[in-house]
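Morning F.,

Quick status update on the modeling queue. The single chain you submitted on Monday has been processed. Sequence for confirmation:
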Amino acid sequence: MAANIDQKTLAYINMYGVLGGLVALCDTVPEARKILGRSGCSVGFAVRGGPQATLTFVGGRCILKEGVEDAAIRLPFSSPEKFNGMINGTVTPIPTKGITKVSFLLGKFKKLTDLLETYLRPTEEALEDETFLRQSTTVMFRVIVSAVAQIANHDKVGQFSASNIVDGAIRMEIAGLTKAALIAKDHQLTFSQKVPKSIMSYMQFADVKTARDLFDGKINSVAAVGDGLVRIGGMISQIDNVNRILSRVELYLR
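Structure tokens below.
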């Protein structure tokens, strides 16, 4: 892994971006809801010196929230590096709570994370299916926009760009598909699935193909703006700095 990757920042991205992708997966992909069925469970990830959050699976949906106090299963990690190791498959955590529910981890949770990987790292053949393309791009959108917030808050280069972002909401959108918001306050960014009625700026990808090509690095975002494939408006200084942070996402999610 490149030396300029900050492991703590990566841990926050993995928590709220990658694992947060399970929220979009369960909302978007019927197969994910089928895997969950009617059963429910909550899994907490406690990273020393890093993020602590819980994924709650209930009613075929996934909810992500900070803290691990209410988690039925708690997985501890001694460092951000260990947590990142779990994400890339080199570390196997041992629960300190909920050992009797480990079957959920080895069964439904693993099936969900395996399914998530097929949507985040799809084959070219899979992307030829229009439904899969839309679902995969929706999930990736959630992961990437969430990652922007974490890079803004924890990565040194991202923090510099965030220091120039004034308070207010930025709407991020794929036209006709999905949208979310980045809420700027005191030079920190927070991801929100709900877009406030009042926004200060926006970035809209013209269509699914444009978003996909940008996410896959096939087209340049600056050139896309010039070609009208990415529409921006409102307080342009907000968008300029968000775009700088966005350019660092690939560094962490390659």
